[in-house]
Amino acid sequence: MGFWWLVFAVLLGGLSVLSWLLKNVNEWFYVGRLDYQKQHSLPPGDMGWPLIGKMWSFLISFKYHDPEAFIYTFITRYGRTGIYRTLMFGSPSVIVTMPETCRRVLMDDKQFKHGWPKSAHNLLGKKSFLGLTDEEHKRLRRLTAAPINGHKALAIYHDYITDAIVTSLDEWAKAEKPIEFLTQIRKLTFKIIMSIFLSGESALLTETLEEEYAKLNHGLRAMAINLPGFAYYKALKGRKNLVTILQSVVDGRKKRKRSGDELEKQKDMMDLLMEVEDENGAKLDDEEIIDVILMYLNAGHESTAHATLWATLYLHRHPEYLQKAKEEQEEIVRRRPSSQKGLSFGEIRQMKYLSKVIDETMRIANISLFTFREAKTDVSIGGFTIPKGWKVIVWFRGVHLDPECYPNPKEFDPSRWAEFKPKPGTYMPFGAGSRLCPGSDLSKLEMTIFLHHFLLNYELEQLSPGSAVKYLPHTKPMDNCMANIKKIPSALS
């Protein structure tokens, strides 16, 4: 027996030593190469296991419905410093969770650049906003701002959006069985974004694009493992197919323009992107056009769908807020001149309370969990050093659910915005600085129009109100919100 106890003790000791060695490999490799001063001024943290770093801890926390557990482990071990070092998405990284630090990282273009992982660049394209230098980004944003987010453009899109929403809501209410509410909203927002970008193309093409885009989106936040069976592998194939389809559309439109055989129709976003010129007369090339479209499919479709779902659900779960939002919409309808038919673009500015509902939804739902930057040089923040080349993960969820920023942060309360003006860095659902999400105004417009019509004419009957929540790649009910949509008599009819 003594011999076997000895063997057991040796094995146990060997495993302990091996575990200790493996846990310190990243520390030696990434921290050990820094000079003495940098090593001792790094933020506190845990570099995790070789290659995977803290990714398993991150994925497990979000997969098993306790997303705060990931950051809480850092806070428990190292205190509430608001800045921690680790290895995430294959890169040495610093996570920032305090408003002042987050804002500085996002606003300081001299010391930080965009830092999304290479996998995201590969999927959305090297000429999307993610992969461009600061100067290239400013140029592309300047060229695309007016056609996509300008006041005139949004006024035009208003009609597209309204028609699609009214038609879809009517179809859902007539369905003979429950629907996956989120799935249908995703189809709706995809239909809207496609009508804006490619209004002249066939419904079959739109359906194919939606299928391929779903593959791409699913791999955006997955580990970059390019092997059959993994989400990233499928996402790359989805991107390849999307590029092929969109290139054929570009080629077809160029051919028709050269032959003078253009269709008589209002110009869509694809037309505008093909025509726009900078101050030197240079136009966007095909790759830029395609990558811009793919980027807006992500910003204007997926994020908008999830935010719209949660705004509807939060109101459904809080009847007092739902009633207040509904009364505002009814009052807007009462004030309309008799000659006006339907919601006007100008009326949207009158929706003060609904705007608060949307702001609160974006804060508490955290559709975008975080964003990435990369240090251009060694940066000193709060007495700590972020080494040049390290990624910086701006943790929006930590800011938006911080009780020091928002009392009772997990409580949905639109009224908190009545007199409340968030301090700089405490409210960033669309990011901040020069890289602010370019589709933010379009997204808010879609949400507002949807909620206007839903509140006036429909109600939600959720089949499983207690359905578990999934947090990756976006926060959503596990059952995609199985529900009946019922049309209700209008109080104004």
Automatic annotation (TrEMBL):
Membrane association type: Single-pass membrane protein
Organism of derivation: Quillaja saponaria
Keyword terms: Heme, Iron, Membrane, Metal-binding, Monooxygenase, Oxidoreductase, Transmembrane, Transmembrane helix
CDD domains, sorted: CYP90-like
Keyword Membrane: yes
Family in the record: Belongs to the cytochrome P450 family.
One Gene Ontology term from the biological process aspect of the record: sterol metabolic process
Functional summary from the UniProt entry: Catalyzes three successive oxidations of ent-kaurenoic acid giving gibberellin 12 (GA12), a key step in gibberellins (GAs) biosynthesis. GAs, which are involved many processes, including stem elongation, play a central role in plant development.
GO cellular component: endoplasmic reticulum; membrane
Pfam families: p450
Gene3D superfamilies, per the entry: Cytochrome P450 (1.10.630.10)
Cofactor(s) required for function per UniProt: heme
Protein name (Swiss-Prot/TrEMBL): Cytochrome P450 family ent-kaurenoic acid oxidase
GO MF term (any one): iron ion binding
Involved pathway(s): Plant hormone biosynthesis; gibberellin biosynthesis; Hormone biosynthesis
PROSITE patterns xrefs: CYTOCHROME_P450
Keyword Protein biosynthesis (UniProt): no
Cellular compartments annotated: Membrane
Chief location bin: membrane
List of residues binding heme: 437
